[in-house]
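Could you help me review a protein record that somebody else here produced? This is what I was given.
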Amino acid sequence: MHTGPANANGARRRKLRATLLATSTHCALCGRTLNPDANYPADDATVIDEDLPRARGGNPLDRANTNAMHNLCNRWKSTMTLTEAHALIAAGIPIGSQISRTQRKQVLNTNVGTWNPNATQW
């Protein structure tokens, strides 16, 4: 089976994952303690997250772009950056809650209602 270019270097990704698991004790999003014994796909399983997601051009093999995170937190973060996700949390939107693209834009874009050519595309 052929894997796409984003997953072409599994050995480097596994090495990066081992490094992150050995050095990370807390989730990069919620700050709670990571559970190294939880198995995927459990919500508290530890997964590797890209700060700038692959979908937005992030490098999944760059240590500076990766963090350890709970599976639930990673799914909720989706294609947001870590900064954008923290802004939603600061606005009172709980991790795991359903949030639409429109709601995300309203919280993250202070120029809602005005045309902003530099606004993030969802």
